[in-house]
Design brief:
binds copper (II) ion; 5-stranded mixed β-sheet; elongated; single chain; transport; about 220 residues; alpha+beta
């Protein structure tokens, strides 16, 4: 088989996979279309990180291509040794300081939103729900109302709702990708996080800890208004 035919076959296979896989997933089960407070914060940090990475990629590629073009060996220069730049203090300072600045650009919003999402100052005056993780389902107990639900969690729009989470067996991880970040649900200590949704709808949740054989089953959870 000719070489180019193999390349075309590989390319067709990958194009086919891209088309098929791009339709995967459920609506409201993605952190890339944020519809809640926590997921919006995560999404903004993802965007900042991608922009920083694109900036680094472009700068590196421009320098790389420029150096390849400008400093390639010319005819008659086989034994020519160009001026060596090792130990150049200015260059070393520049390529140490630039990554530090880029990391600060990512770190500041990340740390700010980590503290923001851990804020419990409004917990007392908000709806509190005790979440119990089990193999393989979730139980929701509204602490101020005499209501319990399982698998379906109902909350109001644009209001912070605090989830006090514990597991009755193994470690689970509670995640509503469109609404919030993840939180581990442990058997021996209570973890708290708040969720706030911006739009009415049905959202889906996942346990992201491999909590047992049936981990992949049943793990859909609805948020209804
Ligand atoms: Cu689980």
């Amino acid at each position: 088989m000719k070489k180019w035919m193999g390349k075309i076959r590989t390319l067709s296979l990958f194009s086919f996979l891209v088309i098929i896989l791009s339709a995967c997933g459920k609506e409201n089960l993605t952190a890339l279309v944020p519809k809640g407070y926590g997921s919006e914060q995560s999404f903004n940090i993802i965007l900042i990180s991608i922009l920083v990475m694109i900036f680094v990629f472009i700068v590196v590629m421009v320098i790389y291509i420029y150096v390849i073009m400008k400093f390639r060996q010319k005819k008659g220069q086989e034994n020519y040794v160009p001026k060596q730049s090792e130990g150049n203090k200015t260059l070393e300072v520049v390529w140490t300081v630039i990554p530090i600045l880029l990391l600060i650009i990512i770190a500041v919003p990340t740390i700010a939103s980590t503290y923001d999402l851990a804020d419990e100052s409004k917990k007392e005056d908000s709806i509190n729900i005790n979440v119990q993780g089990m193999q393989f389902w979730w139980n929701f107990k509204y602490t101020n109302e005499e209501i319990q639900t399982s698998q379906e969690l109902y909350i109001p729009v644009n209001e912070k709702v605090y989830l006090n989470m514990m597991s009755s067996d193994v470690i689970h991880s509670f995640w509503l990708p469109s609404i919030s970040g993840k939180m581990d649900v442990n058997p021996d200590n209570e973890n708290t996080m708040f969720i706030e949704a911006f739009e009415e709808g049905v959202y889906w949740g996942k346990c992201t800890e491999f909590c047992g054989g049936d981990h992949t089953l049943l793990w859909t959870l609805k948020l209804l208004w």
